[in-house]
Amino acid sequence: MNWSLIDPGVIRPWLICESGNRWLTAVRRFGPEMVPAELVPKVESASRDEILVTLSRSKSSVVLWEARRESLAANCDSLARTAAVNPRALQIIACDQLTDREQLCLRPLRVAAMVHHPEELPRLARMIHLHFARWTQFID
Amino acid sequence: MVSGTGIRPFARLVDKSNASVWAISPAGKLIYLSSGCDQWLGFDSAVLLDRRCVAGAPVSDDKLDLIAAALAAPADLQRRGTASLRITPPCLELHRPETREVRFIRIGEDDTALTFAIAGDFNDRLPEPELKDAVAIRQQLDSWRRNHASTAINITAGTSNEAVRLRRRINVAASTRTDVGLFGPPGSGGESILIRIHELSAPAENLINIDGPLMDSDLLDATLMPALHQLAESKEAGVTALVRGLDEMPFEAQQRLAGLLDTFSGRLRLLASCGSQLLELNAPTDDVISESLSLDEERARGLCSQLIDVISSLTIVNRPLAQRVEDIPLIATAMLDTRHAAGEGPAERINRAALDAFVVYPWPHNYEELEHAIRHAIRTAPGNVIACEHLPLAIRSYQPGANLNRAKQTKISLDDAIQRYELRLITETLELTDGNRAEAARRLGISRARLIRRLEDGLPNQPSGKESPGKESR
Questions:
Q1: Which chain A residue lies closest to B409 (C-alpha atoms)?
Q2: Residue A119 and residue B326: Cβ atoms within 8 Å?
Q3: Which residue among A26, A38, A96 places its CB closest to the CB of B129?
Q4: Interchain contact, B400 vs A29, CB within 8 Å
């Protein structure tokens, strides 16, 4: 997609940090339906550091972190740093292998929602819609 | 390495690891216990050496003999070679040893057979995440079958609001003999729902199949003739007309059908699939039951007002599959189960990657397309698991995302896009020329005045003729 043709004011980043491309595919499928009609989500895969850099200079956005047992500490750190860098970022955790206890560890770190499989993403449509609508007044 | 000298460093390492490890001789006596056993049992485990450690063998009342016997391998170890057991040794004094998972391994044959035991926390018995997911889907499916045994049509499986509403409507339709209008997109399996409703609500009643688009008044009469005779002969008789594509049935035939339904009121029942125009029927300002429509309006609607009155007694809405995303894994598994039970192939479950592909695919042909995909996958899959590579090409190669964004993109005006592009080129050229506008205009092949105008248009907040900080205007 040629992003230069789109008004930058209506582009909203939707960043995904994962090891494969399972969630990137899912967000590309369901993401555009989940944001208000006047906005365009720019769905991209990114590393932890790239996400922090992008968020430090962006407006309201959504970040989806894939959480795994072996990288739980790094996930906690990323969640906390993201919340500090950009409080307007809506953070979603994608986890299909974490125990309930491990999921509870992540909850206090400004996690808006947790999903286990791609079919659960459309359930978040209302939340994400409201999240973007909340910051619509800041559209450039 | 000579075993006589190598065993000591090995034993030291085992002791250092704090693992509870012991060995049982071919004669069934404890010949080694690591220091980790001391901590577990709560005493110096060396006192257990040379004590009998055979499952089911008689033991004395000596507590140490009882503890040694508790550490024995299961009786079938000799046959299987490995075994797992949860062991809680008896307490010797105040210390109560915790229950531990123990793995036994037998090496050697008969008189030389040694048994090694390792106690600890093992997670190799936990199911793979993939299997765990399959088990969860299976449990949901079993629960659905248990609770909705009578109306368990595969497309009603699921936990979404849409699935719940669909099931409730079908239950109501199945428990009363009433006219039913079913709204759903093509390929949504409406006919199977209507047949199921008929089987449950009036199984003994004759069912007449009518293909709506192919009918005219005369053909409709001819099709219904036997049923009409039956209704005329007996006041007790009842007949159900199952109409496919009622909204596509010619208007005259619709009016004739409405007349027959009126003549045999209550005894001739209509079960009809009516396309996907329910929104029009439910429009808030459009009370279709009380409002009298002109003929043109009725034709535009696709259904004559008398038939709308009839199907308004109970309407069922079957949403497109793409709007029931969270139900897709369950529906697909239910379809696979049905075919597996019919002996169509060895496949018993769909792996997560294939389910993800199902979830992401937009299903333009709805449930029928899913049914076709499952059939294709069963034929292609050689084993008991359907994977991504066994799915039809259209599904496994589907790349989502671009279309919706492109649709939104069309709202952006061409003028705006060109203006932004021009501004970006000008800004980049100005940076290259260190803010020299005359040079930038020359490189871009435009006049300086035009360049300034573009800058003013593109940067409305920037005062005319001023450069950004650090840039010198020339």
A1: A6
A2: yes
A3: A96
A4: yes
Residue A1 lies in a domain: no
Residue A54 domain boundaries: 9-135
Cα–Cα distance measured from residue A34 to residue A124, given in angstroms and rounded to the nearest whole number: 8
Q: Would an 8 Å CB–CB cutoff place B355 in contact with chain A?
A: yes
Residues of A at the B interface, defined by Cβ within 8 angstroms: 1, 4-8, 10, 22, 25-26, 28-33, 37-41, 43, 96-97, 117-123
Q: How far apart are CA B420 and CA A8, in angstroms?
A: 9
Q: What is the amino acid identity at position B421?
A: Y
Residue A25 lies in a domain: yes
Asked whether the predicted pLDDT for residue B103 surpasses 50, the reply is yes
**Is residue B32 very low, low, confident or very high in pLDDT (cuts 50, 70, 90)?**
very high
By Cβ distance, the residue of A1, A8, A120 closest to B402 is A1
Chain A partners of B395 at a C-beta cutoff of 8 Å? none
pLDDT, one tens digit per residue, over B402-460 is 555 555 555 557 777 788 788 888 888 988 888 888 999 998 999 888 888 888 776 54
Q: Token digits for B430?
A: 């100005």
Q: How far is residue B36's CA from residue B41's CA, in Å, rounded to a whole number?
A: 9
Give buried/exposed letters for B255-286 (b at 16+ CB in 10 A, else e): bbbbebbeebeebbbbbbbbbbebeebeeeee
> Taking CB atoms and an 8 Å limit, are B416 and A7 in contact across chains?
yes
Structure tokens at B138: 């299976």
Of the listed ranges A123-132, B1-10, B285-294, the least confidently predicted one is B285-294
The CATH number given to B3-120 is 3.30.450.20
pLDDT at residue B362 in the model? 93
CB contact under 8 A, B356 and A26: yes
B117-133 residue pLDDT tens: 999 877 666 567 778 88
CATH T-level topology, domain B161-317: Rossmann fold (3.40.50)
pLDDT band at B300 (very low <50, low <70, confident <90, very high): low
Q: What is the CATH number of the domain that holds A94?
A: 3.40.50.2300
Out of A5, A29, A119, closest to residue B329 by CB: A119
Nearest beta carbon to residue B421 from set A4, A33, A123: A4
Domain assignment present for A4: no
Give residue B126's pLDDT. Answer: 57
Residue A71 φ/ψ, nearest 5 degrees: -120, 30
Joined tokens for residue B411: 């709202």
CATH of domain B414-458: 1.10.10
Instruction: Domain count for chain A, please give it.
Output: 1
CATH 3.40.50.300 domain position(s) in chain B: 161-317
Q: What is the mean pLDDT of chain B?
A: 83
Answer yes or no: is A3 within a domain. no
Q: Distance between CA atoms of A82 and A89, rounded to whole angstroms?
A: 8
Q: Which fold has domain B324-396?
A: Helicase, Ruva Protein; domain 3 (1.10.8)
Residue B291 has pLDDT above 80, yes or no: no
| CATH 1.10.10 domain locations along chain B | 414-458
Residues carrying CATH 1.10.8.60, chain B: 324-396
Nearest Cα residue in chain A from B353: A22
pTM of the entire predicted model: 0.67
Among chain A residues, CA nearest to B132: A97
Cβ separation A6–B325 shorter than 8 A: no
